[in-house]
């Protein structure tokens, strides 16, 4: 962050003194105006619901240019990372450490993560407290938060070693917990992790093997899951990441902060969109019903949205969607599902929406979740678990952002203010006068 020679001046039409504010430059992307002295100097706050124009922190992890449709992890384009960047654990190393690992660093990192894949045996009892039909996201909010009660040896957020160990534990244990949530929901025994498998292959093993039958991994499907994880690993200061940072700003432990992130991700406007997009396709049912559905979407009173379309930041296209679309074709081809009716319906809907004036004029394009649901369904992952997979992928981004925040000397407890529009001060009337 460097000081710009340009300054911003805020002037008032009522003749109050103007305020000069510094402007800072990042390495790329929009400059920011430092408004920290605004309240002290003028007694006014800024008003920005939804943080449409607010940079809440400085960060060197992920950069998005929404107009260009560009997503960079530590400077590397997502297209290159997804195709030539190695597996998901390399992306994790990159997000956490700022550079891609060399062969020795990769080996050591994989060994460290795999050393932490098992969860405390007692975690099983937490699962048993849930109803079998509980939504996996509620199970994950509970069990990830509960990790704090098992790992007292890594909760000191002021100790860099503790922070590191917690980060590794979260990345290593998330697949185990997500797979346990699934196994519990279908009444099958929990499957222990296998450390001789890759991160994604091990997850599929914990999901789909049983004590009676091993799961035969298929390279195309493992690669597809790995790509889902890479594409969802981080996404700048989105709602769940901001939630993690806000929770962490009070000094809360990392397990509690990630549980808060999971809770936020669950919403259908955020990570819940992949589940909602697939449910929407199932509800539409057939290509013939698309025009009626599109008419409902355009009717503001219907409350119906085209799930998997639109994005707060990407207003031209979502670069992750392009890659996920490719993966979608690859997986369906591998499984001989090219004629899958749901996939055909999705492609027809995509075509109609991309040509429709309503969507074109609002710059609404398919986002990553429009396709990731179709891929996950083909992999055999149940719809209710889609957002859990997103949480598993995003854990590394959340924890990298949390670590960056804790080491930032400018970090303060997050405390937004408000424009108060309620009743001014008044006296409580006597009881017989109410
Ligand atoms: N279907 C129909 N209309 C839409 C949609 C949609 N999916 N998204 C936005 N619009 C309309 C909206 O009604 C508004 O129209 P108007 O200007 O006539 O009032 C206009 O487009 C602008 O919408 P907005 O709500 O101001 O846009 P936003 O930037 O605040 O919202 C969004 C972004 C992602 C919340 C929204 O597009 C949405 O709800 N999409 C569906 C859910 C979804 O797929 N979310 C996943 C995002 S990608 C995964 C992730 O990163 O979490």
Automatic annotation (TrEMBL):
NCBIfam families: cit_synth_I (TIGR01798), PRK05614.1 (NF004126)
Transmembrane segments: none
SUPFAM superfamilies in alphabetical order: Citrate synthase
One Pfam match: Citrate_synt
Chemical reaction(s) catalysed: oxaloacetate + acetyl-CoA + H2O = citrate + CoA + H(+)
Biological process, per Gene Ontology: tricarboxylic acid cycle
Active site: 311, 369
Pathway: Carbohydrate metabolism; tricarboxylic acid cycle; isocitrate from oxaloacetate: step 1/2
Family per similarity comment: Belongs to the citrate synthase family.
GO-annotated molecular function: citrate synthase activity
Keywords: Transferase, Tricarboxylic acid cycle
Protein name: Citrate synthase
Superkingdom as given in the UniProt entry: Bacteria
Listed PANTHER family: CITRATE SYNTHASE
Gene Ontology annotations for the cellular component aspect, listed alphabetically: cytoplasm
């Amino acid at each position: 962050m460097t000081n710009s020679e340009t300054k911003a001046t805020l002037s008032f039409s009522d003749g109050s003194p103007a305020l000069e504010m510094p402007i800072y430059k990042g390495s790329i992307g929009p400059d920011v105006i430092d408004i920290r002295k605004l309240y002290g100097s003028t007694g006014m706050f800024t008003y920005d619901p939804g943080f449409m124009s607010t940079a809440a922190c400085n960060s060197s992890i992920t950069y998005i240019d929404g107009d260009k449709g560009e997503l960079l992890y530590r400077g590397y384009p997502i297209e290159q990372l997804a195709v030539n960047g190695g597996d998901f654990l390399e992306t994790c190393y990159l997000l956490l450490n700022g550079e891609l690992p060399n062969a020795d660093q990769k080996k050591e990192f994989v060994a460290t993560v795999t050393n932490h894949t098992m969860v405390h045996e007692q975690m099983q009892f937490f699962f048993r407290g849930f109803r079998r039909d509980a939504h996996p996201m509620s199970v994950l909010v509970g069990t990830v938060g509960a990790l704090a009660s098992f790992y007292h040896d890594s909760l000191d957020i002021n100790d860099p070693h503790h922070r590191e160990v917690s980060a590794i534990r979260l990345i290593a244990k998330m697949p185990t917990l997500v797979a346990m949530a699934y196994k519990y929901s279908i009444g099958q025994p929990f499957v222990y992790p296998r450390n001789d498998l890759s991160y994604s292959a091990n997850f599929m093993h914990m999901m789909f093997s049983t004590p009676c039958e091993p799961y035969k991994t298929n390279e195309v499907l493992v690669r597809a899951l790995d790509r889902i994880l890479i594409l969802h690993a981080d996404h700048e200061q989105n709602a769940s990441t901001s939630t993690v940072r806000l929770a962490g700003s009070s000094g809360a432990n990392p397990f509690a902060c990630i549980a808060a992130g999971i809770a936020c991700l669950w919403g259908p406007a955020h990570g819940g969109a992949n589940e909602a997009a697939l449910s929407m396709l199932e509800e539409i049912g057939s290509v013939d019903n698309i025009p009626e559905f599109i008419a409902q979407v355009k009717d503001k009173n219907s409350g119906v949205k085209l799930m998997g379309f639109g994005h707060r930041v990407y207003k031209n296209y979502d670069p992750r969607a392009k890659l996920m679309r490719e993966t979608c074709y690859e997986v369906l081809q591998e499984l001989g599902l090219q004629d899958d009716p749901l996939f055909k319906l999705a492609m027809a809907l995509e075509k109609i929406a991309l040509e429709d004036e309503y969507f074109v004029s609002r710059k609404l394009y398919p986002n990553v979740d429009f396709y990731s649901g179709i891929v996950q369904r083909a992999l055999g992952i149940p719809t209710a678990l889609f957002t859990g997979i997103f949480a598993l992928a995003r854990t590394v981004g959340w924890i990298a952002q949390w670590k960056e925040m804790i080491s930032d000397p400018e970090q303060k407890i997050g405390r937004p203010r408000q424009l108060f529009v309620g009743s001014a001060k008044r006296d409580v009337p006597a009881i017989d006068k109410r």
